[in-house]
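pinging the channel bc i need a second pair of eyes. not urgent but kinda urgent?? the chain im working w is below, pasted from the shared doc
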Amino acid sequence: MRTALENTGMEQPIQKKNIQPIFQWIVLLIILGYEAAGCLLGGALLIAGPDGRYMKMPVEIMHGVFYNFLVPGIILLGLGTLNTLAFASVLRRTGSDWLMAGLSIGGMLIWFVVEIIILQDLHWLHLMWGVPVLLGCVFTIPLIILRHDTVTMRKALLSCGILSSLWYVALYGVSRYRSKSAYTVDGALGTHQHYRFYALGDSVCHCSFR
């Protein structure tokens, strides 16, 4: 009977301890808490001031995709709530901690990709908040494997991690290439002023001009 089952070719989970290593657990909690705080604060400020006045962000940086920051603020607040729930789930080591962490980190990754595409620029503040998301992917993958440890799952998660990292690097390269030319607008007195806007929806915005 045992030989027959072994020869069925069905992929069996690898038996391991169902407890995440303490170092990975702590780092993942820090990342989830860090992103949750930034999203909740940034989302609240954008909703309270859809014109961007509280974060000193001009609406023009979105290049007409949104007329104000209300919708991005609502999305950001939702991501902050999701990260908070994920933090609580990972902290309590619930059976769904892998799912909550995956949804949160995946949601943040999508947020940054879309944000960079809309803003058509990338600033070091994006790296300050985006790199922890990539690091979160690194520590979420072992958690998912821990709950669903199969060869197929390992290969799929490894491929997703590599592709997401390459995609983020590619966006950075394209953004830096395009940012060489400043965003030009006509001044009130008929002169040309050159503005360069750097924005990060979930925490800080910096706007400089020359």
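so The first strand starts at residue 183 and ends at 186. and Residues 21-209 form one domain. — does that match what u expected or am i reading it wrong
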